[in-house]
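Lecture notes, structural biology module. Today: joint structure prediction for complexes of two components.
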Amino acid sequence: MKVRENAVKIGLCATALMAVAALVIVVAYVFFNGVGIINLAFLLESPYRFEYGGIFPQIIGSLCLVGVCLLFAVPLGVASAIYLVEYAPDNIITASVRFFVECLAGIPSIVIGLFGLVFLVYHLGLGISMLSGGLTLGFMILPWTVRASEEAIKVVPRSYMEASLALGASKWQSIWGVILKSAYPGIITGILLGMGKAMGETAVVLLTAGSGLESFLPQSVLDPVASLPVYIYMLATQGHTQASYSRAFGASLVLLTMFLIISVLALFLRNRYIRRNSGF
Amino acid sequence: MKKVNVEEVIEKLLFISAISSSFIVFFIIIFMLHEGIPALAIGWDFFFGMDWSPSHNQFGIFPIVVSTFVVGIGALLTAALIGIPAAVYLAEFSPRWVHNIVKPCVEMLVGIPSIVLGFFGLMVLIPFIQDSFGGWGECILAGWVILAIMTLPHVISISEDSIRAVPRACKEASVALGATELQTIWRVILPNARSGILASLILGMGNAIGETMAVLMVIGNPNIPWIPSSILEPVSVLTSVIVIGINYAVWGSMHQHALFALGVVLFAIVAILNAITTAVIRKGVKR
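The predicted structure, tokenised, for the full assembly:
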């Protein structure tokens, strides 16, 4: 009987390790295939066709897109969260606001991309551009910034707010000076996680921001812009040569590294924040 | 007097921000329907037509919808097969140090950009399937594996939480009656955690069906979609047809309307799955 129990336990453990193995195998494979091509020229030059040049415009393009996305989603998301936690009366309007935030979070990214294409690109006439792509990414991560900010604001002890109000500060002064000051590491953690999501998103950017192979830097927000995920997609599906595959691995490795830096930063901030809030 | 006004203005601004999400959702629904309705209006031949061939003005999406569900359900079963035992292990047996290694890895797995996972599938999985089973390589099976990797973290996290939420007393009562640990898990803990696990699976299926890039790169996307008869055949799913078609569709043509109509169908499927998830969770909480 004991033997059988142990065998089952080992089996269960093996399934858990499979999840770890999936991560390790994917990351290791991309690393070993991509590390060979990465050098300064690869990072700082412009691409030429599928097989030549570097990925500088793609890196900058991805950062620009994420920048536009955050400029849109962060103020809106944080403001929504402040309203929902501090002001919202307990009525049907608040309930429906929450419902629609959840709704937006559930919409597949490709549908949001199609919406960006018809609404921003054609209807508002922004064209295939950095602005269209960034805003559409913003629609996508808005619910995540709302949720993360809400969680961060909720855990600020009630007594802080009451102390501030008792000292004669107005409600907004208390929120701005006290609540946000205590909640900001949590909010930033949420923003960083949303940033990672936006950076890896391909479908939205492919439909609204550009073909990924642009070899120039955008001069204005209305220019089409290259990005790492779309560049990888193009090389992987249309390159068909070893040189373009190895470039795609290099770009994947750069994308993974950027994502890793963001995640580690988010984890670091979260841990520091938890420690501070628990009084150490 | 002025101070009161500032406060009021700020409250109004915050309220407007809060309802912006609602407006975005409304706009998405309105614009998607507006673009999709000319194709949706075809009716029976659109939803149950067997031929999708834009160059011949044929827009029957039935094979695409069937393929989407085949890929989604298979991916989910694969993820469940690995994810639920893994969740049981993490919640009930794992020593602290193993948990501290596995949990962050699972969380990181969520974040791997889908394009990187898809590219990995294209370079590793497809040659592997081709060598082992023959055929095209790009097939349903490859889609299952890649999507299972993507949904696995959700299944593990939510299932683990719902297993941990089972009251300690239930478990202790079972052990006190002489049941072994495994009997307790099988007869007491899993039935109690059932609604959470089920919710994680339905949610995972919604994610799998809405996922675009990773699946697009490994399932083959034949130009004329068909209903697959084996898991080694290439298929087209809703998301892949949209992405590939949108490059070729003339703006304003029926093809473009049909692609948006596919978006509407996808949206509807995912919304229904999400609604079921919410209902299952709510029922579980009530119990």
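Point to remember: Residues 61 and 153 of chain B are 31 Å apart (CA to CA).
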